[in-house]
Amino acid sequence: MRRVVLVCSLAGWALFWGPANASAQGASPSLPAWDQKFACGTTGPCVRFRVLSNWKSEAVLDRETGLVWQREPATLLHAQSVQRLGCQSNATGDRYGWRLPTQVELMTLGDPTNVNDEFHLPGGHPFIVAVADGTEFWSSDNRPDDPTVADAVNFRRINRDSSIAPGITQFEGPSTFFFRAWCVRGPS
Fold this sequence. Notes:
By secondary structure, the chain is an alpha+beta fold. It is 19% helix and 22% strand.
């Protein structure tokens, strides 16, 4: 009886984590590594991110968080509810299951030490994102005590000391403000 269980367990492992799955992207599967900090230099691609070629290169795996991001966020500005529905019906990389990220998830993309990138993203990131399209992105967060107040992340927020870095802004009336969406897949 133990042999059957062991064989089934090994077979399950091979089907899910085995070479066929790993070779789809040319490396072993990447699980979230919240205890690790992937270094990204100013030259060459950042090892933290992997463009998913089997998703038509339209999605990027963040190896630090385990989240999958759109490689190119939306360029059109809409109210939060419209962007939420847009993410839910999105088929980036021929996959459904996209959603608006939380403010914390959006903030994980920011790198406060990289002042050379207009969005303060890690050096060598693979994203296709332009400041001209807007620097504020809706999050899925609304204030629990007042659902008419929603959070957005501004990747070029000016701080009190005049430095520019990602920051969270709350907006009253999420249906009256128009920002971009950067859809994500993964557990929230």
